[in-house]
């Protein structure tokens, strides 16, 4: 326990003092690659810049998928039913140990289902825990909320397992010719070795996060008053008072239900 806490403190120092934001890392890596390509391949500067710019545009489709995952995950996590469930679960822990265990466990489950949903709902749940549980280190609480991200690629939204399970002309290209035939998710996501690894992490990680909680004198808490409710019910326009077609359509749930029906219909056709 002593060594584990000291190792955690060293990692915290490294991350907080030496590790910049991810955007800074990407920028630095771009410049490093630019210099290496310019110096080792014999290309002139304009060719390297053109290759860099053209390559960025090829990521638009992937970027759209990632953006949708985050936006839809946010929408799902903000639903009234999910919010009520989170508030109920947040009322269960009575101490820091069970609080950290529960946050980590829920984060793992949510990220296995969908990484965008997991990132959003875990952060919201951690804030709810901070409102209800005293004496829990807020830094570790947030770290626990994001720790479940470690299993996302072994879950239902893993990009590589889903990509290699799709038979199309790009399969050979994205695998550099290694994979010619689609690999079903029964051999990747739902394979025995993957499920065993997921199970071990699911059991062990919550206890690990709870065990590295700092000593009482080193705890940093957050004032619960700062954690305002970001998901208060918004006041909808009553189209019965302002009887216009625009207000009726904007506040009617019929269109949403029809869209959901079409979405589930497409999923049924696609999978079955």
Automatic annotation (TrEMBL):
Entry keyword set: Membrane, Transmembrane, Transmembrane helix
UniProt key word Transmembrane helix: yes
Gene Ontology CC: one annotated term: plasma membrane
Superkingdom of origin organism: Bacteria
Pfam families linked: SCFA_trans (PF02667)
Transmembrane segments: 22-40, 52-76, 96-126, 138-155, 192-212, 254-271
Name by which UniProt lists this protein: Putative TIGR00366 family protein
Species assigned in the record: Helicobacter pylori 83
